[in-house]
Amino acid sequence: MTRRRALVAVLLAVTLLALGPAAVAQQPKRGGVLRIAEREAPSLDPHLNISFLTHTHVSLAYGQLVRFPHGPEQTHPTDFSIVPDLAERWTVSKDGTVYTFHLRRGVKFHNKPPVNGREMTAADVKFSLERFMAKSAFRTRFDPVQSIEAVDHYTVRITLKEPYAPFLNHLANSTYTAILPREVEQKFGDYNRPEAVIGTGPFILKSYDKGVRLVFERNPDYFMKGLPYLDGVVIEITPDASTRLSLLRAGKVDLGHQWAWAAVEEGRSLQKTNPEIPMTLTPVIGQAMIYFRTDQPPFNDVRVRRAVSLAIERKAWNDSLLYGEGCLDSGPVPCALKEWKLELSKMDPAKTRYLVGYDLAEAKKLLAEAGYPKGFTTPAYHWPGFSPPWRSYYDLVTDNLSRIGITVELKPEEYGKWVTTTALGKFDKMAIAPVTPYTEIDDWLYGVHFPEVPTNRSHVADAELNKLLIAQRREMDPKRRREIVDDIQRYLVDKAYYVYLPWQPQYIAHQPAVKGFRHHDGYGLGYRLMHTWLER
Fold first, then answer.
1. Measured between alpha carbons, how far is 423 from 414 in angstroms, rounded to an integer?
2. Could you tell me the maximum CA-CA distance found in the chain, to the nearest angstrom?
3. CB-CB contact of 310 with 489 (8 Å)
4. In 10 A of CB 506, how many CB atoms?
5. What pLDDT sits at residue 7?
6. DSSP labels for 96-147?
């Protein structure tokens, strides 16, 4: 056995020598501060705002009961399997309605007043999840929850009214369900200030100079021993997309965006000017869409909505803006969510034309039949701060719809207003926006089509569709649930409740010194950076 070990050691040494210094350099290295250029979040409270900026920023500081795998744990960017986080294990009753979570012992909140590094307990879990149910715009995700009990110091029992297939995914979906220390709200009123951001996560928010930067430092008491590798993370507040790209190009930041995304055009430009920056073209979960007040004329008429869809010249958009690399049928299930997306070839072609077709004559005919032979004028609310190619998307919607007599009046909004009103369906007539990554199929279907749900931006109210939406979330058998999801996609294809625009893949781009960073869809930036290190 000793001779065998000696032989293995010699072979390993020879292999490393042959591979050179690069092989040794791939071993994680502790230390260094990673810098990110990003926009400012409208809030730091994970329950009071649905902004992706809020949730990615504060994900560095918070933990959840369960999470998705990241870094070396994940198998691909949309690996939404469930792994332990603050709960080390859990059980589910045979009827799928009772979840019992057993918490890790000795997990500490950050050592900041008024919490001062005390242990996280079941009472904190109960408080946090009940606060989510009371305050979050995503609280409908927990509609099936009947009760949350702190059985003892380290055990939490959650009882559902009925089986609910999305439940664990919703618990894992970043800081929407972050575990917060209850005394912080008692002292500060909410969690929307730097001193109130106190969690169990891998990084501690040290300072926040509004409009300038957020500074996070390594949590020395993080329960995952040896992690994170970084000493800290700095988010440089940079509202302008071109400035973020310039900072990355000049080597002044390590990531030009919190997801390390670069739009297709940006990525191609970087390849020319900075060939040393590693870049990988990656499909990412999301949708680009026009949404409507389907409870108001003229968009309560399906013929008008179909006409809008038929006027969008998707192939030309894809060729001119996305270099032919985008996805044309980006809804109702996103292109990158491959395990759930039904191929167009498996749907009725007479209906799919209202999803991806381009026919100006048919669009004008539909408008005339709906009583608008000369078209009409509509506002289009939007936030102008989204990264490229969104400025071009707004202009192209205006141009394309003008061809069938619809005059679009673009209505730009400040981000704080947009994310608390328009993004939650509080607007007049029409809006245009991307929808960033939901990790559970229920969010893309039930979440945007069921009545009274805040993210049902188009105010859809369809009794036949509702039956299918409820059925898929109650179905615990994955195969049968997929069949229902397929039926939903077949049903929605010609309804045009939302008009889907081409969705782009993204280049994952960062400085060569950044190692161990692996893209994962969702808002878990803290978990991604937990496994990231710097080689410099």
1. 12
2. 88
3. no
4. 23
5. 43
6. S-EEEEEEPTT-B--S-TTTTTPBP-HHHHHHHHHHHHHH-TTGGGGTTEEE
Both structure tokens of 169: 């995914």
Structure-token pair, residue 422: 């328009």
* Domain ranges across the chain: 33-253+509-534, 287-501
Tokens in use for 436? 């960033």
The CA distance from 181 to 196, in Å, is 9
List CB contacts of 280: < 8 A, sequence separation 6 or more. Answer: 507, 508, 519
Q: pLDDT value at position 178?
A: 96
Give the integer Cα–Cα distance in Å for 34 and 376: 51
Say which DSSP state 40 is in.
P
Q: State residue 21's pLDDT score.
A: 42
Locate the DSSP E strands across 273-356. 279-282, 287-292
User: Which backbone phi and psi does 272 adopt, to 5 degrees?
Assistant: -80, -45
Residue at token pair 């994170």: 228
pLDDT of residue 154: 98
Encoded amino acid at 204, one letter: I
Give the number of residues written for the chain. 536
Q: Are strands 87-92 and 145-152 parallel, antiparallel or unpaired?
A: unpaired
Domain 33-253+509-534 in CATH 3.40.190.10? The answer is yes
pLDDT computed for residue 12 by the predictor: 40
Global pTM value: 0.84
> Which residues have a Cβ under 8 Å from the Cβ of 404 and sit 6 or more positions away?
307, 311, 360, 363, 364, 367, 375
Q: Which amino acid is at 402?
A: S
Q: ω into residue 114 within 30 of 0, thus cis?
A: yes
**Distance from the first to the final alpha carbon of the chain:** 39
Q: What is the DSSP track for 423-467?
A: GGT-SSSEEEEEE----SHHHHHHHHHSTT-TT-TT----HHHHH
Q: Do 33-253+509-534 and 287-501 have matching folds?
A: no
Q: How far apart are CA 516 and CA 220, in angstroms?
A: 20
**Which CATH superfamily does the domain covering 287-501 fall into?**
Dipeptide-binding Protein; Domain 3 (3.10.105.10)
**Peptide bond between residue 332 and the one before it cis (omega within 30 degrees of 0):** yes
Q: Residue holding tokens 């102008």?
A: 384
Where the chain has pLDDT below 70, the residues are 1-25
454: which residues sit within 8 A by CB, 6+ positions away? Answer: 137, 138, 140, 424, 425
3-state helix, strand, coil in the chain (%, to 5): 35, 20, 45
According to DSSP, residue 148 is labeled E
